[in-house]
Structures are given as C-alpha cells and as structure tokens.
Specification:
Its EC number is 5.1.1.7. GO terms for molecular function: diaminopimelate epimerase activity. The chain has 259 residues and is of the alpha+beta class. It has 4 helices and 17 strands. It has a 17-stranded mixed β-sheet that branches. The N and C termini lie close together (5 Å). The model has no long low-confidence stretch (mean pLDDT 97).
Length: 259
Amino acid sequence: MNIHFYKYQGTGNDFVIVDNRNGEYSSLTTQQIAHLCDRRFGIGADGLMMLENHADYDFQMKYYNADGREGSMCGNGGRCLSAFARQMGIEKPAVKFIAVDGPHEASFRENGWVNLKMQDVDWIEVGNMYFYLNTGSPHFVKFVTDVQEVDVYEEGRAIRYNERFAAEGTNVNFVQEMDKGIFVRTYERGVEDETFSCGTGVTAAALTAAPAETGEYTIPVETIGGHLEIQFARNGERSFSNIWLCGPATLVFEGNINI
C-alpha cells in the first residue's frame, strides 16, 4: 500500500496524519500503524491520525497511539488535525469535529496557534500528593519541587503499571509551579515513554493548579516542546467548564511511504 502522509507537531508532540475521507486507509492494521510511528523503521511519531467524514460535523478525528491501537482523546492531536483539515480545504474561522470523547470546537489565530475546546470536567480525585482526573484521557497528576530532576520514564512507568492502573493504563504528569504558570512533563500510555508535550495532560495539570476561587483563568504552561495556554472557568471545588487548550500546530513535512 502506498500512503501519502503529512507530519505535524504541536509543541513537539508529533503525529503522522492521513486524509481518509475516501476510506482508502481504513484497512491499516495495528502492526502497520505501529510501524509508521516507529522512529527507527518508520516515519516516527507519537501517534497517527485519520481525517474522516462525518454527516453532522466538519470532520471526524480517528486517533491511534504509537503502539498502533486506537487511543483516547489527544489534545495536541486535535489541534494538529484541525490545522490539517484547514490545509485540506475545510476553511472556516472555526470548525466542529467529533472525536472518541465527544464533540470539539477549534478556532484559529493569526499567529498559527490553534485553540481547541476540551470537554468539561466535573470530577477530580484528590489523594495524598496527587490528583486523578479525565480530560478526554485519564491523567495522574503529581506536583514536584524540581521537575527537571524527575526520572519521568521510570517514575511514570511505575505509576502507569501499578496495581491500580496496569489494566487500562493512565498518563502520568509531573508538575512544577513556576512564578508564572507551570512546567509539565508527561509519561504517555500507548507511547510508553515521555513525550515532549501532552495536550490533555497539560490541561489536567492546569486545572489542578488553578486558584481555589471560582472565576475565569488563563494558565501559561511550559513543556519540553514549547509553550501552551489553558483557558477555563472554575465553577466549584472540582468543576470546570469552557476549557480551551491553546498552542501552535505546525506542518513539518509530507511524503509517501510504501508498506
């Protein structure tokens, strides 16, 4: 099979994207997708996305983890796929699409940033030195004093595969509060390693770092891959709405590959 693909990245979270609106790539297997995402033997990416048609939305987002299995919502992926949809001719000031966790909206800034509306959050588990919540994907959030000193692979993997999470998995975020905003590093399930950025992860981290008072907030977020912003309204102790993940989404290159 010959595949025409596009490579996008959002703060270093990178994706192989294909236009599957005619269904020509629907037969890709788990093994083939994993091969395409392999950084030594394939194109290399944190995941693969398909742009697909949907009767009620501008498009549908299909997301696969780097291991080739269909994944939960990917925030940076949603921003990149929205930018890709625009490149493919879906040219609107804002688009609406459906993903595995439900409907989303995306709007575009002149500086190349894409703003993605996330699902509301009305439940957060607060434990001893951690938070656990779902922002489209499940996230275990742990605050640390020096995020640069954390062994994200070893510590993240230990939590992801502990007795509680081993079966379904969880993403693990290590967060340091800064003078302005937060710095977040993430171990991602499905990739099974640290990624340069994770959209649902920085969203989870920002919500748990929010001031206790109700109101509207913008939290600046630094990741290894660059800068993001999370905008949201805090409605109560563990309730958040109007959540937006904002940041760059950039075409890296396009090409063809035979598999």
